[in-house]
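Minutes, methods subgroup
Present: GH (chair), OT, SY

1. OT presented the first of two proteins processed in the latest run. Sequence and structure tokens recorded below as shown on screen.
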Amino acid sequence: MIIMSKPSENLLELSRSQGLIRTCDLEPLGISRVSLTRAVRSGQLERVGRGLYGLPGRKISALGSLAEVARKVPKGVVCLMSALRFYNLTTQAPFEIWLAIENKAVKPKLDYPPLRIVRFSGAALTEGVEEHIVDGVTVRVTSVAKTVADCFKFRNKIGLDVALEALREAWNEKRMISDEIWYYAKICRVANVMRPYLAAARM
């Protein structure tokens, strides 16, 4: 029977509670990188990506890449095409993770998964953000109504047809209410653009 040292126990407990851990998570907790290296060599942990580790054999969903991005870019918010995919509001399958960051923030550099960065500011970045658990990791995602409004704001990037599909699906499935969509439409400054399309969706 192997008796684990205290650092190893803390390391594994951290992995269980956070789903995935970064090397920069260790120092504040007094866990050395040597302990991390030993845990990987002994098979207690596995390297998921650069500076990212998890328990071997852990369950990974189809949305696992969102969990990886959330741990690597904790202030980012999953948005637009990736948020639509998260909520099953599109038939599109983006190969990039669409991520909103603060307007003046440094652009994150990841080997994997590939990112499509969109810059938001003020209420457009902070309002309508929900937290969901994906593979044990807390992932920040724009809400359904905020995502739909964002799609109209960035319709030139993703296509008006995608925005209309999202609006139609979200409305028909009762995933949002009128007050919500108007609130976020005003924040995104697309209320006038959306008005005729929302009126048509209600018919």
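2. SY then presented the second protein from the same run.
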Amino acid sequence: MAITGNKITPMLWFDTQAEDAAMFYVSVFADSRIITMSRYGKDAPGPEGTVMVVSFEIEGQRFTALNGGPVFTISEAVSFVVNCETQGEVDSYWDALTEGGDPEAQRCGWLKDKFGVSWQIVPTALPDYVGGSDTEGAQRAMQAMLTMKKLDIAALQRAYDGVEAAF
């Protein structure tokens, strides 16, 4: 079978949780699906019949998850950015992805999910606030963002506008 889809596909290395992770991610994102799942055969490095590789797609982006054993672990050095148009989207993704995750790894829109994968749940308006033409407003928005775990679009807007202390 030929590989089709994205030219570059992120590969996530798990000990034994590749299938669980892929199933979780496709449950969180509406436009997603499992593409293929292959299992270890007899005399393979993993237990026969267990999942070896899962190929899945989220919002048109292909991913591959591998059950490769405990040799390597996922780190915060790589994260996936989820661009959100509304606070409702921010809230929905944040709530789903933080469930069972690491609460100590939540800051400025970043989180670590229950599989150790890092995500950034980012309002598409964020650059307008922290990089806007009003430099004082941008500083206020940046200071407000630095106090947040989950990003709050309305609070960032208020900070940028100088309407009230948003942090």
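Chair's summary of item 2: The chain has a mean pLDDT of 94.
Next meeting: continue with the remaining queue.
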